[in-house]
Design goal:
five-stranded antiparallel sheet, 447 residues, 14 strands, alpha+beta
């Protein structure tokens, strides 16, 4: 995904180019038009001078008074040329043309044309003429006057101007991009406290963003306030749900006792059925009460820091099952990317089952291996037969209802949590006896 800074820079550059390129073209067009207009004005001035210098001698021959012409028309290939012709064979031309023929053109009086054409080539010359021709009448005699000027030097200067303007444009763009990059970096640096606080929120080092302090930029402040509001609402809802479930389980104890007393008044056959039903209800109540004690205060969205979150869980379980000995092996700096509440519920269920049905030493091992987290809980209890383990892992089987020979494995919640993170759940035999429950979770907490 493209970063916001890169996207802003690209859009800004495109906008700047869309604005500057037409301006650059307009400036180039204006300079070319100004140059052409200036040269044409000079050609018209020269044409007026030639008309004034055009005279007729005593024999009636037409000639140009060279004393009234500038030196440019006298020097060969000077870049300034003229020719005067009529239909009676008069052909007057500047000495600068030497042996080159001027364009053959005849125009009626009062008609003016101008155009560009290649001029004298070769002899280290590469001229480009800007020509003007006009029909004139002198003493009731019609002539076509042609004047031209080599504009190749002007075009060279114009090309140099274009290159300089382009280089200046590139330099200006680079400079503006550096300035914009610095400004964007300084602007986004104001978001670093938000990023740091979100990281602390992720690791459970804070409960919210404290948006009410107004420390964020105006554009981000509403987002921070909404995140704070949603976090507070989510935490309240989860806490209320857990408290309500724990309270419900606690309140069910007294009705269960009353039902137990009423069951004793039934006949022996019905008493046995009633006791079994009440026993299942009592187990469910005890299970929910233990879950509430295990998970403790809700912190939705927080990652699992083993050094902080695991010891309180082990302490609670050790108090509930003093006959069991839990030994935990894990990296004290490890942080599981999965949700803290989910992981405490998963570990609590696994360890609770192991403590309840396999008293003795229980080994909990958590390690990172091949971009995965491996969690194993191994006990020295009676274990489960291989056929029963396969049955428990069949797709669609509720693991806590399968029973597995009365072992009482409450793995339904564990299976749901593992599935939600795209992990795997395995049951293996322990040596010399017992059961190992192995959970494999991805190193990233995608759900």
């Amino acid at each position: 995904m493209m970063s916001l800074q890169h996207q802003l820079r690209r859009q800004w550059l495109l906008t700047l180019l869309l604005l500057m390129l037409p301006l650059l073209w307009l400036a180039d067009y204006g300079v070319r038009q100004l140059t052409t207009h200036t040269v044409l004005s000079r050609l018209q001035h020269d044409a007026d001078g030639l008309i004034a210098a055009l005279t007729q001698d005593v024999q009636g021959n037409w000639q140009v008074d060279e004393s009234r012409l500038g030196a440019l028309y006298q020097r060969v290939y000077s870049g300034h040329y003229f020719a005067i012709r009529d239909q009676q064979g008069t052909d007057l031309r500047s000495r600068s043309l030497w042996d080159k023929e001027p364009p053959a053109i005849q125009l009626a009086s009062g008609i003016v044309r101008h155009w560009q054409q290649p001029g004298i080539q070769g002899d280290r010359l590469d001229e480009q003429w800007l020509s003007q021709a006009q029909g004139i009448r002198v003493q009731n005699h019609d002539f076509t006057l042609w004047v031209a000027e080599d504009i190749a030097p002007l075009q060279s200067e114009l090309n140099r101007y274009r290159l300089a303007a382009l280089a200046l444009l590139v330099f200006a763009l680079l400079t503006l991009m550096l300035i914009q990059r610095r400004q964007l970096s300084r602007a986004f640096a104001r978001l670093e406290p938000l990023q740091q606080q979100l990281r602390e929120l992720r690791f459970g080092e804070r409960d919210g963003l404290n948006a009410a302090a107004g420390q964020y930029p105006q554009e981000v402040q509403p987002l921070a306030e909404e995140i704070d509001r949603l976090l507070s609402l989510l935490q309240q809802r989860v806490s209320r749900s857990r408290n309500a479930l724990g309270n419900l389980a606690h309140e069910m104890k007294r009705p269960l006792q009353q039902l137990q007393l009423l069951a004793e008044q039934l006949d022996p056959q019905h008493q046995q059925q009633q006791r079994e039903a009440l026993q299942r209800l009592r187990q469910l109540v005890e299970r929910e009460l233990k879950r509430a004690r295990i998970v403790g205060m809700s912190s939705p969205g927080r990652q699992t820091r083993l050094s902080e979150d695991l010891p309180p869980l082990l302490q609670v379980l050790q108090q509930l099952y003093p006959q069991a000995s839990i030994r935990a092996q894990f990296d004290h700096s490890a942080v599981l990317p999965q949700d803290r509440d989910d992981m405490l519920e998963l570990l609590g269920n696994l360890l609770d089952n192991a403590c309840k049905y396999a008293a003795g030493e229980i080994l909990l091992n958590i390690r990172h291996e091949d971009k995965e987290w491996l969690i194993s809980v191994c006990d020295q209890g009676p274990g489960i037969a291989a056929e029963a383990r396969q049955q428990l892992l069949l797709r669609g089987t509720r693991l806590d209802e399968a029973g597995a020979g009365g072992s009482g494995l409450g793995l339904a919640m564990v299976s749901d949590i593992v599935s939600s993170y795209g992990g795997r759940l395995q049951l293996q035999a322990n040596q010399p006896q017992g059961l190992c429950v192995i959970v494999t979770l991805p190193a990233t907490a995608g759900r």
